[in-house]
Amino acid sequence: MKKILMLAAIAVFSLATVQAQGVSFGAKAGVNFATIGGDETDDIDGRTGFYVGGVVEIPVNDFFSVQPEVVYSAQGAKTKFSETILDETFSGESTVKLDYINIPIIGKFYVVEGLSLEAGPQIGFNINAMDEFEVSGLGMSESGEEDISEFVSGTDFAIAAGASYKLPNGLFFSARYNVGLSDINDDPEFDDISNQNNVIQLGAGFLF
Predict the structure, then answer these.
(1) Average pLDDT over residues 27-52
(2) How many C-beta neighbours within 10 Å does residue 61 have?
(3) Which of 61, 109, 137, 207 shows the smallest number of beta carbons within 10 Å?
């Protein structure tokens, strides 16, 4: 299924080169401010990561364009805990690292020249899921990393919305919020808990 969807995305990019006029190709990169929402996430903090990928802007008319993208995105969240037992504090920190290949299909409406409002669906494929932890106290100290791929859904669906501003030379700046719609928790022991990815993205790119 993943291969089929990836091939479909490649087909969209290829079709753009054949049929569309005024098509612009480019690349973009920036910073992610990611977190995990949903059930039992009161103690969850954000994880700062990055994204990088390629874009194609396909004009439909003077005011509207369609922009498919393929983006590597480092997401996840952090959490800390502390507990006192027999007058000694046991504490720890965990960073959940969830890395995705995201494929958003964005509609861009130009409100004035250069400035566009944008929104569209996004599907993501999880390519890495690790829990990096560090605990100390009670006479012990331990740190390490654990693969948690079996507890994380392989696909993620979201709605992306934001705005961008493109200069005449092709340089653009963008801000986007990706709101997770699907449950990323695939742990059978916690099937009553639902969690979603939420990501704020700030970055820049260039269209040729």
Answers:
(1) 95
(2) 7
(3) 61
